[in-house]
Task: structure prediction
Amino acid sequence: MGFFKLKENNTTVKTELAAGFTTFLTMMYIIPVNAMIMSQAGMPMEAVITATALITIFSTILNGLWSNTPIAISVGMGINAYFTFGLVLGMKIPWQTALGVVFLSGVLFTILSLTKLRVWIINSVPLDLRRAISAGIGMFIAFIGLNNMGMIVANSSVLVGLGDFKDTNVLLGVVGLILVIAFYAWKIKGAFIIAVFFTSIIAWIFGISPYPTEFFSLPASIAPIMLQLDIASAFTLALFPVIIIFFITNLFDSLGTISALGNRAGLFKGDTRKLQKTLEVDATSTVVGSLLGVSSTNSYIESAAGIEEGGRTGLTAVTTGVLFILTLFMMPLFKAIPPNAIYPVLVMVGVLMFSELEHIDFKDTSIGVPTFLIVIMMPLTYSITNGLAFGFISYLIIKLIKKEYKDINFGIVFLALISLLVFIV
Result:
């Protein structure tokens, strides 16, 4: 295993294989969860299941071979919800056009991953605002999860109200939420997917949802969604801000995750080439994913589980990617999982992303106000784009009011102008 430099990284084949299996268990939930989310955009669930598995296999194995890091890559949580609920259902954009947006943002990400512009954009946005973006997306997907579970519903008097807790499906969602919180609190490996399956078993036993008559089958065709992206319709002035938002969100999420994992495992040690290569795979995978028929990809924080098991090289990622081949043949099982066994996972992921707020300095008005607007406006306007727009514009305005001109750079001005386009266009 000289290719992976196991001795140099103080690890063994056995350790790497065990770490890869652990990462697989912790992030396996993405297959049914992403399929459930994107199918609500009108895309066939069977095809999305296959496409999600394929892009996870491709990107994770590629990252292991190219960057030699134990980081797994798959369709990003949060950005997939924005794809469905923000663009397709919110802005009434056909899913084919939304895939075109993903493709263009991925191309932009790939180009900038090879240049110094990537660093310029990252350095242009204060760290606290980057954390606010993560927290805001967490609020957004948690809101989506609670709404789709039926725990919160539209109310003509107060806009949003409590759902009907006498409904068995709502109660199933409550049970699922309790299970996912409990398993995560107990630090059980694979807490998310275990909670999904336990909730599904409860639904099957009590007749809330039909149980699967078979568990394995051949993979479904991805022909209905593969190469169906509409790039021409996405390449318009009206969608330009959305493309930028997809790019920025993907960049910050990836960089934040990779940096956190790298610091935890000591992957980079002053050498940023591995980080650079992981970003390159992440960006390339977004482009490939849009061709297969899924939304933007991201490095997965669940890779931390494998790292805690001792994974230090690309062999961990390759192992994870190979294990995901199994999910291609689990279609009947995934289709039998009731929605309210899946949506509690969105709420818990939202909680974890929201925890980024603990690091933010709210005493600084120019940080506190934009952070609040980003976090509150994403769920209230059902749009990540709007939340970021309010945040960037308010940050620039407050800095001008306080005459803190040294904190204003061209990058912030550019992002604020792009944000204005969101409202003007």
Q: What stands out?
A: Residues 2-424 form one domain. The first strand starts at residue 73 and ends at 75. The radius of gyration is 21 Å. Strands lie at 73-75, 152-155, 159-162, 297-299.
